[in-house]
Automatic annotation (TrEMBL):
It comes from Dyadobacter sp. 676. Keywords: Signal. This is Uncharacterized protein. Residues 1-22 form the signal peptide.
Amino acid sequence: MKNIKSLFLSALAALSLGFASCKEEDPFLDRDVAPVLVDIVGAPFGAPIASEPTVTYSANAEKLTLSARLLELDKTNILDHTKGIDSIPVPNLSIKITLRTGAVLGEVTSDAQGLVKLEKTWADLGITAPKAGSITKISWSGSYKGIAFTRFSQVQAN
């Protein structure tokens, strides 16, 4: 009886370790790290990377300037606490700005400081009569060093 209990516990422990050690790949996410940091200009500083930064504009504004800063993170000195990670602007990078519905707002190229800007109206963003709280969702997509990336953001009327 004692041997059966210890055999059963050993088998249970082996099965538990076997199941815990299996790693299942996520079929929906690729494992490439985004090569460019897309910093949405006008969003609150420190907006979490995991969330969508929201930029607010007056509902009465005639023109809205969608703007982002494109940065490459140089991690050469990541282990040196006196230097750290450096943010380098990415010039001449083509970015496609679209609504999440798929409508293309435009394609712009970053300047020497890594800035991209696109002027649109509320109607261009799909909101014909903006009122406080109106939100439209935007995608910023491009490819850098052979790796495609997309950053999401929102525009909200106040």
